[in-house]
Amino acid sequence: MSLPAIRALGKSGVPVVCTERDVCDTKAALGFYSKYSKRNVLLPDADTDTALFLSELSSLCSDLDERPVVIPVGISTLLTLCENRDEVLGFCDCALPPFSSIELANNKSRLIPFAKEAGVPVPETTFKADGESVLSLSQRITYPSVIKLPLGEMLGLPPEKRYSIVSSKEEFIKTYTVFEQYGQEILVQQYITGDGYGVSCVFDKNSEPLEVFCHRRIREYPSSGGPSCFCESVDSPQLAEYAIKLLRTLHWEGVAMVEFKGTPETGFYLMEINPRFWGSSALAPNSGCNIPFALYRAARGELAKPFSSFSPSYKTGHKMRFIIQDLLSFPAYLKKSEHKLKFAVSFLSGLLNPFVSDGVFDISDIRSSLQYFKQALKKTDSIVR
C-alpha cells in the first residue's frame, strides 16, 4: 500500500523518505527499493513503545532540510499519530482525522448505526442480546448472513479472516463460536449481493473534499471475499455523495476509502471505511487521480474549492490488475461462471491487453517491481505446497 504513494509523490516532484518498523523484514519493505525513496529509515514500533517512536520520528523530521509532511500508511501508526495529534503537528505537517472519528470509523459496531443516522444505507445488522445463546441467534436471522469482527484489522487478521459468509444454522453456530474467541462484539449482517465499490477521498482541514475517486471491484482473491485483484475506475455520483456526506459528518481530515456493495437495481449499502491507504490504491494515480499528492497538499494546508456535485476528473473505465493474485483467482471464478468458455476468453484477453495497468509493476521503477514479484512468488510457492 505504501509503494503507489511513494511513486505518485516522487513523480510529482516531492522528495520522499521511507520508514519502516525496525521489527520488520526490510526485504518486504518495497518502498526501500523504489528509486523515488531518497533515504530509508527504520523506526521503533509505535505499538511497542509509542514514546520512543514519536521521539525518533521527531528527530528524523528535525534532521531534514525543511519541515516535512508525514504520511502514515499502516493502521497502528495512523492511530498513534491521531491519538498524539497535537505533539505530531509540532514537528511536521500531517492531515489527520480527529482520534474520536477514526476510532468510530474503524469500529463497524459503532459505524453502522452512525451511518444509518447520517442517511447512508447500511445492511440490516444484528447483535447477540445479553444472555442470548448462539443457537437462539442462529434461529432469528435470515440466510445467507455475514458474520463480522468489528475490529478485525487491529488483530492483525487478513481481510478474508475478518468475516465469514454462512448459509445455515449449523455453519453459523460453528463460525460464530470461533469468532467469539477474539473477545469482540460480533456483527451479523444481511448478505448483500452485487459488486464492491470504493470511494476514495482526501479531505482538507475544513472537512471538504479536495479529491474524490470511485472504483469497482471486478475480481477478488480469494474470490469468497479478499482484496481486489482486478478493478476499474468508474463514475458513481450517488456513491460519491454518500461517502462525502458520511466523512463530512465525521469531521474528517486526510485520506479514507469508503466501501459499498450492491447493484443499481437493489441499491448500494455501506460495508466499511478504510481510514488509510487501501490495497488497490495504485488504480487512482494510474487513472489520473493523484490521491497521494492530494493528501500532501491537504497536509500543507491547501483548501478545497466549493463542492456542489461529483464529476470525475480522471479517466473512467481504466482497469488494473495484480497479476499473480488474479491468476490465482482464475480457477474459482471459472468454476462459478455460468459461461465458462466466455469467461476464460475474457480473462485471457485481459491478460494480453496492454492498456490494463498492473498494481505493482512499473517499468520506470523496476527494482521495487522485481522485489515485489520475488517476495510474492515465494508466498505463492508456499501456498501451492
Describe it:
With 385 residues, the protein is an alpha+beta fold. The chain has three domains: 2-95; 124-190, 2-Layer Sandwich (Dna Ligase, domain 1), CATH 3.30.1490; 195-321, ATP-grasp fold, B domain (D-amino Acid Aminotransferase, Chain A, domain 1). The protein is built from 14 helices and 13 strands. The chain has helices spanning 2-11, 50-63, 75-83, 85-88, 99-105, 108-117, 134-139, 169-180, 237-249, 283-286, 291-299, 323-336, 340-352, 366-384, and strands at 16-21, 37-43, 125-126, 145-148, 163-166, 187-190, 195-203, 209-220, 228-234, 254-263, 267-274, 319-321, 357-358. The strands form three sheets. It has a seven-stranded mixed sheet with strand order 11-10-7-8-9-12-13. Strands 3-6-4-5 form a four-stranded antiparallel sheet, with helices on both faces. The two termini are 27 Å apart. The model has no long low-confidence stretch (mean pLDDT 93).
